[in-house]
Amino acid sequence: MALPIVAIIGRPNVGKSTFVNRLAGDQTAIVHDEPGVTRDRTYRPAFWSDKEFVVVDTGGLVFNDDTEFLPLIRQQAMVALAEACAAIFVVDGQTGPNPADEEVASWLRQQPVPVLLAVNKCESPDHGIIQASEFWELGLGEPYPISAIHGSGTGDLLDELIKHIPEVVETEENTEIKIAIIGRPNVGKSSLLNSFVGEERAIVSPISGTTRDTIDTVIEHEGQTYRLIDTAGIRKKKHIEYGTEFFSINRAFKAIRRADVVLLVLDALDGVTEQDQKLAGRIIDEGRACVIVVNKWDAVEKDSYTIYDYEKSLEARLHFTEWASTIFVSAVTGQRVTKILELVDKAAESHKRRVTTSVVNEVLTDAVSWHSPPTTRGGRQGKIYYGTQVSSQPPTFALFVNEAKRFNDNYRRYIERQFRKQLGFDGTPIRILWRSKKVRDMEVGSVNRATRV
Fold it and tell me: What is the pTM of this model?
């Protein structure tokens, strides 16, 4: 079901992201008292009355300055407006109209979409009407006094907005796969996103730290829907100061948690760094499926041994993610980019797969017959009574044994290897919980006591 889009437009630091958070009913957009925090266009679901729609937060528009990211921000705002059914122009009621507002208003008057004028920071209802009246001179119709922080005045504005929002035609949907694109700064995450989408969806720049917010983009490929989540580059913790970057990285970690599959993007020229290893560990800790994407492969000088040597290096540096598939791509040329989705499909399927208890125990029986559990110095041998899958995403198994501490790390890794060998689970971590017989009896006993009560 494709929802109508409403673009939120305005110059820097007028409270656009705060207004988006108000409409979306959450605090997803980064809000910080600093111009230029929002750079890409970011999408948030919203509704009012009986209408559902998507609000698009855009970067602050400045038309008379071509420094740094400002031309790219203008491009993003123009793309957002081109796909919108309506726009809300946000201005600052406390400062009053200024030349920058007049430039944006002049541009908006030339656009073929209806534009509503929201005069933000009007916290006092009585004084707000006076503040808003100053903006009639922009020639965009009635100015609505609102407070994005407190929500006052937004109802009248939204009542007018939904008159311009078309009815949504529901269609049968397939289940989307959520993909978070994670990596260090400047490894090519936004370029990879743009290569998937086929347009300049995210701002791409050689300056690290370009992406601030997480950005959701929905694409469809061969009948499957994917939600791509671009994130800010994650630097070492010691280099991060409290502020915009701190919030951006928190958003990136949340993106890992809500993803089905994480693309860990590496820079082929840099190899695997210590920070890459930490990010891989974070993905495992969150229990997410993973595909390792080695980007900028076109920039590597190659001979017949290059890819084999690189794979050995990856295996050595990321040995704890040996279950993850690896693909070598170039986001700039598009080389093998679409093949990433094939690996994503396999990883997502493994991540949510469930195995019957009978199959689990067949695997355990076979594994034990080939390699018996270890025996302690006192002659006591570990015994596995049975196992069962207790959850998916990631696949999690509980093995009930006589005493968990009798099973050393080597044997536990052996059992995990047997699960992967017999059942697959390519692309996803699996978790095995070792439950001692005493713990099992205690758990059963507590259930029985609860039943009697």
Answer: 0.58
